Amino acid sequence: MNMPVSSADTTLDVLIVGAGLSGIGAAAMLQERCPAKRYAILEARAAIGGTWDLFRYPGIRSDSDMYTLGYGFKPWLASKAIADGPSIRAYVRETAHERGIEQHIHFRHKVVRASWSSAEALWTVEAQTGDAGELVTMRTRFLHMCSGYYSYDQAYRPRFDGEERFRGRIVQPQFWPEDLDYAGKRVVVIGSGATAVTLVPAMAAQAAHVTMLQRSPTYVVSRPSEYRFARRLQRRLPPKLAYWAVRWRVIAESMLLYRIARGKPELAKKKIVDMAAHQLGPSVDVAHFTPDYKPWDQRVCVVPDGDLFKALRRGQAEVVTDHIAHFSERGIVLRSGRELEADVVVMATGLSLSVLGGAQVVVDGRPFVPSEAMAYKGMMLSGMPNSVMTFGYTNASWTLKADLTAAWVCRLLNYMDRKGQAIAVVRRQDGVAPEPFLSFTSGYVQRSAGLLPKQGSRRPWQVYQNYLQDMFTIRYGRIADGVMRFGPKGSLP
Length: 493
What we know:
The protein contains 12 helices and 27 strands. By secondary structure, it is an alpha/beta fold. The mean pLDDT is 92.
């Protein structure tokens, strides 16, 4: 049985970094498939939930359905498929509580450094704790990074001329102020991504008027917040069977739609834009939702029950496509000369990416640079032993890949135990050309391209955005595949 670890002097079998959706899922999988392993979770914040505890802006929700964003082992039973942030946070916390994971979590422990020793076959992990930032050291045989892909400490925040003259308030969604009262006020939301399309309809319910100011359009599609076919299956089948039936239907549909979009981009673009035009009606120009790139070159935004389109159609909100010239005392002056008057400006301008939680990594005394590494099956970085990073899909639910990764870690650990091996590592192969880890053209990806590891031109170095391919490769592929190297403690294979 996995026992909680209270002593920093105890050597762990597995150290999980992050108590969000991925970290709690990894712990649950470890308890089920490696029950004898001693593990702990280090969480930089004071609560379980990760993204879903951090973000508190109005309307916060997932743009992935909960039948696939939820865990494979815990059915999502609530009525809404597109769920709000508090519901997702409660689901993650409930999972941790039901499985006794809470007692393994060390809160307010921010990992700042991880050092690997091949002589000992151990990671030494340093974490800052509490307000004083006191350093605590833990040692572990395996390191599972579930800290996500963006910085919790800072968001992408461009600066504009004249901001100091603006008499209103400027806020960022990632650090939403509890005291912000926007009722009856004029709001400008800068951005056109998932955060912006969530904020606009949510704030429009109370604000005098909301303007979404974008430099360029984004693909936006409407999906029902509740799936009627899911309700029917839940009435007729046992809960777990119904969950799996809905889950696989959603997976199959999303994979088919993605394949069509990538294979016939002009057809997909026309369909998406036509649907938006139908939702908007004649009073809103669909040009604001007609990007000049192909679908899935950037992530397609989802709005449940067309709430954004409804707010625009009713005149509660508007979309303006233009560039910012400068701020004025009353609001924002655009290059076209128009001035958008505002009491509140929300900078929904994107994320700042972070790899391995921003921690410094050292392997046998040498600094490890993630951008120089290649990702093996999208999980393990070349030259970084006994470690895995969880990185989900860009075209599907994050948890689908997180579940596969957590299960593969258990397979790897059990294999190493059976074979009496202390070290597992992958090395870059000759003849495998490096390619970008993500093929997205989104700003947050392009800004951070120099931080991300590479993927390779052929398997097992390719990062698939395809759940079925990954399932067969990760779940059923051989652990000892000729690329993974194993060895005893003493030196790196």
